[in-house]
Amino acid sequence: MAIELLAMTRHRIWAIALAALALALALAACGEKSEDTSGASEGFSLTLDFYPNPDHAGIYMAQKLGYFEEAGLDLSIETPSDPAAPIKQVAAGRSDLAISYEPEVALAREEGLDVVAVAALVDRPLTSMIWLKSSGIKGIGSLEGKTIATAGIPYQDAFLKTILARVKLTPDDVKAVNVGFGLLPALLGGSAQAMLGGFSNVEGVDLRERGKAPVVTPVDRLGVPTYDELVLVARRQSLEEDPEKFRLFLAALERGTKAAVAQPGAATQAITEANPDLEPKLTAAEVKATLPLLGGEGGKRPYGYMDPGEWATFAGWMRDNGLIESLPDPSELLDNGYLPSGEIPE
């Protein structure tokens, strides 16, 4: 299944000019940093999944505080013009790391791409079913005959099928409309009574800040197996050639994430400096909702840990829903061996 089908993975309604953003990123790179005491730095490239946003708080906080420099890494952060590009950039050796999604890792493996997840940035689903209290919808069963806005992503179409099956409905019992990036306008404008694909920490927060009283339910509470929403992906060959630089990056990122959690105001500033097109008040609310999601189940797991059992279950769900043909072993998809803690839960 072509990775291009996932080009609309991130559901944001931000009108951002690429040229302006490139300038903003260049200016942010010149911001506040601690002194570099590590001597010569090694170049290291990270490709984001989308424009800088609260999901990247730990990254930009670590950059702002100079943690990557202290680790001996000269970090360059790239923003893709095509959301399908990051995992391909890594597979081709043009980027050291990329932010991607667990389902995409399994799809990439199916296509034979030489990539593996090395850390979870967000270790639970953010993708949610969302409707407004004013809609009168009382639960999934109430969606029969309703219009549901989607982004048209194949694996999220399978989410919808699984969610509806719990209440003995099928996709034919609802009207699913592919609106691309227009999830919020469809819901707010009344052309859809619910939407599937918005993130709990972004669209859910946006609606709450507008006073719309949203009902936000992540898909793993609706029958879809849990999965890691955001993961860091590397090329296996690159990991074998220079494993230490990946360990150094993840250790610096853990420091940056802890700093962001401790200083949410500074984390918000780091994000808005990297992307001046973000609205500060809304971004602050989104950062507040996001930071608790970045620490490995509230500290119950080592930072960045990916549960092989959960990955196996989710891969089985993907196979059963026709998204992949073969069932991969978790070791083909993830490697916890580069995490800074070195701890692997039993």
Rg estimate, integer Å:
20 Å
* SSE arrangement, N to C: HEHHEHEHEEEHEHEHEEHHHHHH
Q: Based on CA inertia axes, which overall geometry fits?
A: globular
Based on helices, strands and strand pairing, what is the structural class?
A: alpha/beta
Average of pLDDT: 88
Low-confidence stretches: 1-38
- Strand ordering within the main sheet: 2-1-3-10-4
| Number of H- or I-type helical stretches | 14
Beta-strand level of the residues, as a percent range?
15-25%
Major β-sheet annotation: 5 strands, mixed
**How many domains?**
2
What does this protein look like?
With 346 residues, the chain is of the alpha/beta class. Helix 2 packs across helix 11, helix 10 crosses helix 11 and helix 11 (264-274) packs across helix 12 (280-290). It has helices at residues 18-28, 57-64, 67-70, 85-91, 102-110, 154-165, 183-189, 203-209, 236-241, 243-262, 264-274, 280-290, 296-299, 308-320, and strands at residues 42-47, 73-78, 97-100, 115-122, 127-132, 147-150, 175-178, 194-199, 214-218, 230-235. Helices cover 38% and strands 16% of the residues. The chain has 2 domains: 3-124 and 227-338, D-Maltodextrin-Binding Protein, domain 2; 134-221, Periplasmic binding protein-like II (D-Maltodextrin-Binding Protein, domain 2, 3-Layer(aba) Sandwich), CATH 3.40.190.10. Helix 6 (154-165) links the parallel strand 6 (147-150) and strand 7. It starts with 17 loop residues before the first helix and ends in a 26-residue tail after the last helix.
